[in-house]
Design brief:
This is Thioesterase domain protein. The protein is an alpha/beta fold. It is about 45% helix and about 15% strand. It has 2 domains: about 70 residues, no CATH class; about 90 residues, 3-Layer(aba) Sandwich (Rossmann fold), CATH 3.40.50. The protein contains 6 helices and 6 strands, in the order H-E-E-H-H-E-E-H-E-H-E-H. The longest helix has 24 residues. About 0% of the residues are buried.
Length: about 160
């Protein structure tokens, strides 16, 4: 392996570790939920508390998604945390409530009516608020299909 390639990989790993360490601190040491098979994807030395979905299923005796679906959310409850881009500093977590998301989706569907047979095309990663709310959730709310492609595939051959 060329030393330039090794340096790029090392730099990327260090950047990933730094980002995960920042998120761990920003979110006050949350539990990171993943599948056992994906655990090796997380670099060591980040301080993350990692739990496996499979372990939760065993402990609860039922699928955690079934449990989550049975909980009634209030409109003022936080639905998700979206991270800012970090273009001016480290990324910050922005709280989005159920009410904010529903108001956004209701407004989008009123201004941009979508036919039931339509499809949404997305080439932006789902960790971006625009992609998540403008495409993914909007499509779900409107009851349409979604097509997701890698940004590099779309940009290289639009």
């Amino acid at each position: 392996m060329r030393s330039g390639h090794v340096n790029k990989v090392t730099k990327r790993l260090e950047s990933c570790k730094s980002h995960l360490h920042h998120l761990n601190h920003l979110l006050d040491r949350p539990v990171c939920l993943t599948r056992s098979a994906l655990r090796p994807e997380f670099p060591s030395g980040t301080g993350l508390k990692i739990a496996h979905v499979e372990d939760l299923k065993k402990a609860a005796g039922q699928d955690p998604l079934d449990v989550a679906a049975s909980v009634a959310a209030k409109t003022a409850d936080i639905a998700m945390l979206m991270l800012t881009s970090g273009s001016t500093d480290k990324p910050k977590a922005v709280c989005l409530t159920h009410q904010q998301i529903m108001a956004s989706l209701t407004g989008k569907c009123a201004v941009l009516p979508v036919d039931a047979g339509s499809s949404f095309l997305n080439w932006i990663r789902l960790d971006h608020v625009g992609s998540l709310v403008e495409i993914h959730l909007h499509s779900m709310f409107a009851g349409t299909d979604q097509i997701h492609v890698e940004p590099s595939d779309f940009i290289s051959e639009p």
